[in-house]
Amino acid sequence: MKYIDTLVIGAGPGGYVAAIRATQMGQNVTIVEREYLGGVCSNVGCIPSKVMISVGHRFEQAKHSGDMGVVAQEVQLNWTNVQQFKKGVVSKLVDGVERLLIGNKIDIVNGEAHFVNANTVRVLDGANSQTYTYKNVILATGSRPVEIPTFTFTERVINSNGALSLTEVPEKLVVIGGGYIGTELGSAYANLGSQVTIIEGGKDILAGFEEQMTHIVKKGLKKKGVEVVVGALAKGVEEHEEGVVVSYEAGGEEKTVEANYVLVTVGRRPNTDEMGLEAVGIEFEENGLLKVDKQCRTSVPNIYAIGDIVSGPQLAHKASYEGKVAAEAIAGEKSIVDYLAIPAVCFTDPELATVGYNEEQAKAEGIEVKATQFPFAANGRAVALNATEGFVKLIARKEDGRLIGAQIVGAGASDMIAEMTLAIEAGMTAEDIALTIHAHPTLGEMTMGAAEVMIGRPIHVVK
What pLDDT shows up at residue 160? Predict the structure, then answer.
């Protein structure tokens, strides 16, 4: 039996960050991972999906850059090389996580953790087992794709993991679920040449973003030939040697669509089962997530939980943030979570990014706000990139002009949102942004432009 200060279960973006911060706070740390270092994000999620999206963009641009004077006689896609490149990227990042853990003198243990009591776990790795006794533990076990009973995962009925490892670019692909995962991967495969159909049960795709933003994405999907069916109920699938036939109900009618594969992206469930958490008295929310306080502490004082197994958006950077808070709380610091300035990004075409409040959310909480926009079409860099679809939108409180939200749709939105996240975190006003010199010509100038509109002194749009 080995005694340690802090045990971290799960080595994804929440767990490995928590472990490193804990060692920085002077704790003796061991991390347990049952599958792969870096978690879903590095291995079968954020990173490999962005590789596919990047490849899709390059392929699409190579075929359709005639307006910019770039004409390719024949553009070919070598799918074997694409998959090899993706594996290389994943390998580099996973190796980097391992080096970080080793460099911070963190013991890495492979296996599944099962609670014996609130201070002891047994880690099983095949026929071997080891018992660990600890003072505190941080749970960072992440989540897995939800499986619909009528869409059991097979070779042709796949989840997001399977979509990233296909041996071919499907001629036809059906996506069940129009959230960020389904829309991102659907867009990527559309760029790679697939005929894509997205079936969404809600009234619209990308429910977490404003309709004003998703409208631009839907225009882009339509140009790619993607069919989006909303208000639809996926009912079942029939498999055959070459593909699948998906049945669904929309507008009171039963319909079918054929494809080579059907990708099911209807959500993710927390990995909290089969660990014995109930035995140690941990309390759960009604939705199966763990109850935690502002310091990520569960109902059992020495057990902390972060990431996808607690309330809030299932984002890698949220998990990392919570991991730091939990490690610092264990060390006795007064760190607490504050989710206002946590950005959310969707790597569609064009990209979506939001942070803080949007107009609707602010009004729902009785906050009087002022909202202004600056269009991509008025930005020199966007025009030069031939990427003029989109806008930057700022939300500020009327009472004092303090920025409390921002939404960006357009090329580079995922990078541009960082400035507005910092502005909200720092309590800045639109005037602060307007008075900050931004490099020209850059996409980042649009935040300054939107701020100038807000204070009534626009330069690059007519007031």
Answer: 96
**Sign (positive or negative) of CA dihedral 394, 398, 400, 404:** negative
Contact (Cβ atoms closer than 8 angstroms) between residue 265 and residue 181: yes
pLDDT per residue as tens digits for the range 213-268: 999 999 999 999 999 999 999 999 999 988 999 999 999 999 999 999 999 999 99
Beginning with the edge strand found earlier in the chain, give each strand of the sheet holding 232-240 in spatial order: 232-240, 243-250, 253-259
Q: Kindly list the structural domains of the chain, giving each domain's residue range(s) and its CATH number in brackets, ordered by start.
A: 2-144+269-330 (3.50.50.60), 157-266 (3.50.50.60), 350-454 (3.30.390.30)
H or E, element range at 393? strand 391-397
Q: How far is CA 156 from the centre of its chain?
A: 25
* In contact, 409 and 390? CB cutoff 8 Å: yes
Least Cα distance to 317 among 177, 211, 414 occurs for 414
Is the confidence at residue 279, as pLDDT, over 90? no
What is Dmax (Cα atoms) for the chain?
Answer: 72
Q: How many CB atoms lie within 10 A of CB 75?
A: 13
**Which residues of 111-179 form beta strands (DSSP E)?**
112-117, 120-125, 128-139, 143-145, 157-158, 172-176
What is the helix (H) or strand (E) element at residue 190, kind and residue range?
helix 180-191
d(CA 69, CA 150): 49
The tokens of 241 are what?
A: 């040697």
What residues does 107 pair with on adjacent strands?
Answer: 30
What b/e sequence results for 337-361 when a residue is b if at least 16 CB atoms lie within 10 Å of its CB, and e otherwise? beeebbbbbbbbbbbbbbbbbbbeb
Which pTM does this prediction carry?
0.95
CA distance readout (Å), 424 to 212, 338, 352, 404, 415: 22, 12, 18, 6, 16
Contacts of 294 (CB under 8 A, 6+ apart): 336, 337
Task: Tell me the per-residue pLDDT of 328-364, one tens digit each, with 9 for 90 and over.
Answer: 999 999 999 999 899 999 999 999 999 999 999 999 9
Question: Has residue 296 got a pLDDT over 70?
Answer: yes
Q: Does residue 127 register a pLDDT over 90?
A: no
In angstroms, rounded to a whole number, what is the distance separating the alpha carbons of residues 370 and 157? 46
- Which residues participate in catalysis according to the annotation? 440
* β-bridge mates for residue 434, sequence order: none
Average pLDDT, the chain: 96
The answer to whether the CB of 345 falls within 8 A of the CB of 317 is no
d(CA 191, CA 72): 16
